[in-house]
Design a protein that fits this description.
314 residues, mainly alpha, two-stranded parallel ribbon, 2 strands, 1% strand, transmembrane helix
């Protein structure tokens, strides 16, 4: 049973779950447009500040592409199922070396068994709370590219091992280690590299390395980890839909750099998973109006969520 149906009526859920093709197109265009503007800003005013800003903003929009692929996995990006899958696959997933079908298979299992022994994401959240030193090491690995390089090498090696073996590909797609990555990397790598080449053609030869591959290996990995920690880190390992997931309030800077496209409303998403991301704030307000705020696990900021997970611990 969808948890939200115990607290919201059908007449309340129906408008929240309404999808819009126009809004889906706008979100995808906004994500790619923001990436283009970040590159253009450096092109107009090349200096260390605009370089660093471009890397950070592009890395956050790579997370944005992951979030929009996540919307497509729930068939919430577009009304039209075919458009949903094509755009979710080729304009959102493949550019960041992710595969929609594999992600959808694993992610729906996560929703079904959230924070229980059968949750494929439990390996992420069960590590928290942890020590401040442990989180520092994790963030250092992310920001220096070690996490991204390790994962990319792992993807390449997995692709060689699975080449031509359809049964092994299906098995790998259902495994957590491959859930967010494309088992058939050869389908995604040309898209990933092609985007880097287009960015280089727009400027200098090294722009694709600096403004697509570097953000992917660094800031994207960092904010992906922050997202995972904020959503389920240091929450209850139970079936309570108000306590096994966290909603984190985010201001304009956090939405730009860490939490694009309303991803911070994660408790609401788990309550009714097919509600489009842009309607989650309305759903949050509706739950508060029903007096449920005291039961909901929330954090006033991403800093506060990280502190719960151990950022300020000894």
């Amino acid at each position: 049973m969808t948890p939200g149906k115990a607290y919201l009526g059908t007449e309340e859920i129906r408008p929240l779950a309404e999808r819009s093709d126009a809004m889906g197109l706008w979100l995808v265009a906004h994500c790619w447009g923001t990436i283009a503007l970040a590159v253009a800003l450096f092109g107009l005013w090349p200096n260390p500040l605009t370089f660093a800003l471009a890397v950070v903003v592009i890395g956050s929009r790579q997370l944005g592409l992951a979030i929009l692929m996540h919307e497509a996995a729930h068939n919430a990006l577009f009304r039209n199922r075919r458009l949903n899958d094509i755009v979710g696959e080729w304009l959102c997933g493949r550019p960041i070396l992710a595969e929609l079908a594999a992600y959808r298979h694993y992610h729906l299992t996560h929703h079904r068994f959230t924070q229980t022994d059968k949750d494929p994401d439990l390996v992420l959240s069960s590590k928290f709370p942890t020590s401040h030193a442990s989180m520092q090491r994790k963030f250092a690995r992310d920001l220096t590219g070690r996490t991204g390089i390790k994962q990319l090498i792992g993807q390449i090696m997995m692709s060689f091992r699975l080449a031509g073996d359809d049964e092994a590909i299906k098995a790998a797609a259902s495994d957590f280690a491959q859930s967010f990555k494309a088992p058939q990397l050869w389908k995604s790598l040309p898209v990933f590299v092609g985007i880097a080449l287009l960015i280089s053609l727009a400027g200098d030869w090294w722009w694709g390395l600096a403004f697509w591959i570097l953000p992917y290996l660094t800031w994207f990995q960092f904010v992906l980890r922050i997202r995972n920690i904020a959503e389920h880190g240091a929450t209850e390992q139970s079936e309570d839909p108000f306590q096994n997931v966290r909603t984190t309030y985010a201001g304009p800077i956090a939405r730009l750099l860490v939490a694009p496209y309303w991803v911070n409303y994660h408790l609401e998403h788990h309550m009714i998973m097919h509600v489009p991301c842009y309607n989650l704030p309305r759903m949050h307000a509706l739950l508060l109006d029903k007096g449920l705020g005291g039961r909901m696990k929330t954090a006033p900021s991403y800093g506060a969520a990280l502190r719960e997970a151990g950022w300020r611990s000894a």
